[in-house]
From TrEMBL:
<keyword id="KW-0297">G-protein coupled receptor</keyword>
<feature type="transmembrane region" description="Helical">
    <location>
        <begin position="61"/>
        <end position="82"/>
    </location>
</feature>
<feature type="transmembrane region" description="Helical">
    <location>
        <begin position="197"/>
        <end position="216"/>
    </location>
</feature>
<dbReference type="Pfam" id="PF13853">
    <property type="entry name" value="7tm_4"/>
</dbReference>
<dbReference type="GO" id="GO:0016020">
    <property type="term" value="C:membrane"/>
</dbReference>
<protein>
    <submittedName>
        <fullName>Olfactory receptor 7D4-like</fullName>
    </submittedName>
</protein>
<dbReference type="InterPro" id="IPR017452">
    <property type="entry name" value="GPCR_Rhodpsn_7TM"/>
</dbReference>
<keyword id="KW-1133">Transmembrane helix</keyword>
<feature type="domain" description="G-protein coupled receptors family 1 profile">
    <location>
        <begin position="41"/>
        <end position="290"/>
    </location>
</feature>
<feature type="transmembrane region" description="Helical">
    <location>
        <begin position="27"/>
        <end position="49"/>
    </location>
</feature>
<feature type="transmembrane region" description="Helical">
    <location>
        <begin position="272"/>
        <end position="292"/>
    </location>
</feature>
<feature type="transmembrane region" description="Helical">
    <location>
        <begin position="132"/>
        <end position="157"/>
    </location>
</feature>
<keyword id="KW-0716">Sensory transduction</keyword>
<keyword id="KW-0552">Olfaction</keyword>
<dbReference type="InterPro" id="IPR000725">
    <property type="entry name" value="Olfact_rcpt"/>
</dbReference>
<keyword id="KW-0472">Membrane</keyword>
<keyword id="KW-0675">Receptor</keyword>
Length: 312
């Protein structure tokens, strides 16, 4: 089939997670439920943090930003898949595909950096408690979030601009449930050498530095905690990091699985399943991890649920 430049009228075909027609209603119900839980759970986190002055601290400020990013990440990928399942169609426009690439990379990258910022916040809180409020002042917290958004948005824009140079055969099939950049590069009919180089360099730079920051923060945290003489103090210090460690393990474990499965096996099915974990499952579990392990968050959520507006 002759390759042609994609125009506004060009379309891709998203093959989804399964082509079995009998599974489609079950997939629709499952992902609709997961999407609703993700949106409602993260909205509860944002509402709880904004409504209670006791939660107006740097840790909860970053948590509310993480919840907002998780909602955006899920909204970028799941609704289109649900529409395609319901209408029994697989098409997505060229512009729609590039939009998915841009925002899915952006919000996943912001999640990545926010987890690093949250690790730094825990490092300051445990290792420098007397200077915590002076160091983690509102200006620095806002600046860290702003820099995170700007860096990731510009990097994602670079990837999209490079992708716009590529050509694709008419009716290109993508073995995924959304337009993921590695899968898109895989089906391009033109040379993707530059795109792959930029992708690997960006992944290395934007991956190594944050991961190094997280590892450094927790090495200092562990060292500081081990020097504590009080068992209660050690438990309290580790408990404040428990939720963050769970989310970090879940996010990096699944994200690493995506790129290792793509780089080593080139398996589209394995990549799709791993992508479900970090674009759907992790954003859904984050509110439960933070609310169930955090006494302050549980108390605020209970008060919110007791309000008349939440009663039938």
């Amino acid at each position: 089939m002759e390759a042609e430049n994609c125009t506004e009228s060009s379309e891709f075909l998203l093959l989804g997670l399964s082509e079995n027609s009998e599974l489609q209603p079950h997939l629709f119900g499952l992902f609709l439920s997961m999407y609703l839980v993700t949106v409602l759970g993260n909205l509860f986190i944002i509402l709880a943090v904004s409504s209670d002055t006791h939660l107006h601290t740097p840790m909860y400020f970053f948590l509310s930003n993480l919840s907002f990013t998780d909602i955006c990440l899920s909204t970028t990928t799941i609704p289109k898949m649900l529409v395609n399942i319901q209408t029994q169609r697989k098409d997505i426009s060229y512009r729609g595909c590039l939009t998915q690439v841009y925002f899915s990379m952006s919000f996943a990258g912001i999640d990545h950096f926010l987890l690093t910022v949250m690790a730094y916040d825990r490092f300051v809180a445990i290792c420098h408690p007397l200077h915590y409020m002076a160091i983690m002042n509102p200006c620095l917290c806002g600046l860290l979030v702003l820099i995170t958004w700007l860096i990731i948005f510009w990097v994602s824009l670079l990837h999209v601009l490079l992708t716009m140079r590529l050509t694709f055969p008419a009716g290109t099939e993508i073995s995924h449930f959304f337009c993921d950049l590695p899968q898109l590069l895989k089906v391009a009919s033109s040379d993707t050498f530059i795109n792959n180089i930029v992708l690997y360099v960006a992944t290395a730079l934007l991956g190594v530095f944050p991961v190094t920051g997280i590892l450094f923060s927790y090495s200092r945290i562990i060292s500081s905690v081990m020097r504590m003489s009080s068992t209660a103090g050690k438990y309290k210090a580790f408990s404040t990091c428990g939720s963050h460690l769970c989310v970090v393990s879940l996010f990096y474990g699944t994200a690493l699985g995506v790129y290792l499965s793509y780089a080593v096996t080139r398996s589209s099915q394995g990549s799709s399943i791993a992508s479900v974990m970090y674009t759907v499952v992790t954003p859904m579990l984050n509110p439960f991890i933070y609310s169930l392990r955090n006494k302050n968050m549980k108390a605020v959520l209970e008060r919110l649920l007791r309000r008349p507006t939440f009663c039938l």
